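in:
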């Protein structure tokens, strides 16, 4: 089995737990959101970096990983940092403007949904770099970060398609954003590669934070025959794991290595090394080498990976693992054309002047 699948990121999970506790201790009210600023003070450092997240950094998933990246930027690059949890598009723009006015060098909107606000604000603060994760828009001081989550999602689907005993599997998302939809398309295609007759149920919660909604939707899919549930739901995913334990079905972690949350039920996690990705962009900004582009992070960059849960690895036939590993290698080498049309052209919206692929 490739080292990609054997990788066990205990240190990263511990880091997430530590920064989550620290964030709660630092929380203060600001700009309609929950603001956390390092002890130095965001106004005093020469390199100031801010992060806006759409949900709580205690979700053990998407937002926790980004906050771990922010703390890594502080520790490795000596940055002064600030974090705000935002809930509405109006807050996206309000807080982008606040950080621009305060002279931040880098402001990160953590999610596809931040792009419109960033495009409106960036021209007014040319000395601040605005970056949107899962983003595909650019400008003179605006960039996107594209995580090829669908690549490892395809591999997860291959496993689910062969392991299902009922012939029905599910996928549950927080909101129907293009990157989430793409990952579900890839998951279904991977499942049908190993089991052409598999039935795939897809549901969206309309929320990233409602744990109860995640649990209820999982129970509903299980009632329809699903015995494996893929998810990309942030904090609501904790409810999905609770339902998996209750009904004794299998599931997958997403964004972070969540294998330890429900170790007897999570087959593996589609993991994004957010600290590595955010650090890469921050180094460019601090070093003066930033260019308007769409940063591409996937299996090839060793930022996205499928991390198999070692406790359940023996449930996956060796021949299937070898096939999954082979697909991963083909994706890294650009030989797997099945990935080419997972995202629709409208989902790849970007500034043609940037010259990015």
């Amino acid at each position: 089995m490739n080292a990609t699948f054997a990788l066990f990121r205990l240190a990263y999970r511990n880091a997430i737990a530590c920064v989550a506790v620290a964030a709660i201790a630092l929380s203060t009210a600001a700009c309609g959101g929950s603001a956390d600023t390092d002890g130095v003070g965001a106004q005093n450092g020469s390199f100031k970096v801010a992060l806006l997240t759409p949900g709580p950094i205690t979700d053990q998933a998407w937002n926790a990983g980004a906050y771990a990246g922010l703390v890594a930027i502080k520790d490795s690059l000596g940055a002064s940092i600030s974090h705000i949890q935002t809930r509405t598009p109006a807050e996206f723009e309000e807080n982008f403007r606040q950080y621009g006015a305060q002279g931040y060098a880098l402001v990160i909107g953590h999610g596809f949904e931040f792009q419109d606000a960033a495009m409106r604000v960036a021209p007014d603060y040319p000395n601040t770099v605005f970056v949107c994760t899962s983003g595909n828009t650019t400008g003179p001081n605006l960039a996107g970060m594209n995580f090829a989550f669908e690549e490892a999602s395809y591999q997860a689907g291959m496993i689910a398609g062969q392991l299902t005993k009922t012939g029905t599997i599910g996928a549950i998302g927080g909101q129907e954003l293009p990157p989430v939809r793409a990952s579900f398309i890839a998951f279904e295609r991977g499942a049908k590669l190993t089991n052409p007759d598999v039935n795939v149920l897809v549901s969206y919660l309309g929320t990233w934070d409602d744990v109860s909604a995640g649990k209820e939707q999982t129970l509903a899919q299980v009632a329809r025959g699903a015995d494996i549930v893929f998810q990309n739901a942030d904090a609501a995913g904790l409810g999905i794991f609770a339902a998996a334990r209750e009904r004794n079905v299998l599931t997958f972690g997403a964004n972070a290595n969540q294998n330890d949350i429900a170790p007897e039920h999570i087959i593996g996690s589609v993991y994004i090394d957010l600290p590595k990705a955010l650090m890469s962009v921050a180094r460019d900004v601090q070093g003066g080498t930033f260019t308007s582009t769409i940063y591409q992070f996937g299996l090839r960059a060793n930022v996205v990976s499928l991390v198999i849960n070692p406790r359940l690895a023996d449930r996956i036939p060796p021949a299937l693992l070898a096939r999954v590993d082979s697909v991963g290698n083909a994706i890294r080498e650009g030989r797997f054309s099945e990935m080419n049309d997972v995202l629709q052209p409208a989902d790849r919206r970007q500034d043609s002047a940037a010259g990015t692929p």
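note: The longest strand covers residues 266-272.
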